[in-house]
Amino acid sequence: MFTGLVEAVGEVVAREPTNRGFRLRIATPLATELSPGDSLAVNGVCLTVILSEQHEVHADVGPETVRVTTLGSLERGCRVNLERPLRADSRFGGHFVQGHVDAMGGIEDLRPDSEFHWLTVSFPQELRPYIVQKGSIAVDGISLTVAGLGTDRFDVMIVPFTMTHTNLGHVQIRDRVNLECDMVGKYVVRAAELAGLTLPGMGSHEVTH
Asked: Which CATH number fits domain 8-83: 2.40.30.170, 3.90.870.10, 3.30.420.10, 2.40.30.20?
C-alpha cells in the first residue's frame, strides 16, 4: 500500500530486455534503503526490487505490466516518481494507492496560474464511474485531487512543491501517464454492479488471466 506522496524522482539508466519483458535500472538515493524483495512504486506501478546496489535499483517488468502501463515506453534518461510502501507506524498522507494501474491517460494541457499549474488529463471511458469531483486520483503515482471533471478528462491543480519534487516538471503535451482511481470508489462501483445497478460508463472488462 502506498500514499501517492512521491519520495524521490529517479532516472532510468538502462532498460535491459528479458525473456518477455525487460529489467529497469533506476538511479536513486533510495537505493541504499531498499533490499531485494522490497516493493517500490515506479510512476505509480508497484514493482519488486530485484537488486539494490550503491545508488541504483533493478526491477523486472513483465509483459502484462508493459501492456497496461506506461513503463513499456520508458527510455534511458526518463525521470520516474518513486515511493516506498507505507509503514504501519507512519503518519498517513495522500490517499490509499495500491500501485495497480487502472488505465493510461494522456496529458492534454499544462498551463500556469500564478506560481501554480493546471494539469488536464484525458482518460478512457471505462474509468468514468470511478472519477468524481473533489475525489482523489493517482497520476503517475502522485496523489492529486480532481478539481474539474468532464466526460473524458479532468483537471488538477499542481502546487509548486509537487511541480519541483515529481516528474511533472518534465512532462510534455500528449505524454502518457498511469492512472489509478480511488480504491474506495472502485469497491462502491463493484457493489453497485453486484446489486444489479448499471452506472454510466460501466461496462464489461476484458479478463486476461
From this structure: 2.40.30.20
Do the beta carbons of residue 117 and residue 162 sit within 8 Å? no
- Measured from the Cβ of residue 87, the count of other Cβ atoms closer than 10 Å reads 8
Integer Cα distance of 141 and 139 in angstroms: 5
Cα–Cα distance for residue pair 20/24, rounded to 1 Å: 13
Kindly list the distances between the CA atom of residue 143 and the CA atoms of 66, 138, 174, 190, in Å, as whole numbers in the listed order: 22, 5, 20, 22
List all residues 6 or more positions away from 179 whose beta carbon is below 8 Å from its beta carbon: 44, 101, 102, 103, 104, 105, 121, 123, 127, 137, 138, 139
pTM of the model: 0.89
- Intrachain domains 8-83 and 103-194 with the same fold: yes
> Topology of domain 103-194, per CATH?
Elongation Factor Tu (Ef-tu); domain 3 (2.40.30)
pLDDT per residue, tens digit, the chain (209 aa), is 899 999 999 999 999 998 889 999 999 999 999 999 999 999 999 999 999 998 999 999 999 999 999 999 999 999 999 999 987 777 778 888 999 999 999 999 999 999 999 999 999 999 999 999 999 999 999 999 999 999 999 999 999 999 999 999 999 999 999 999 998 888 888 888 888 876 655 443 333 32
Q: Where are the domains of the chain?
A: 8-83, 103-194
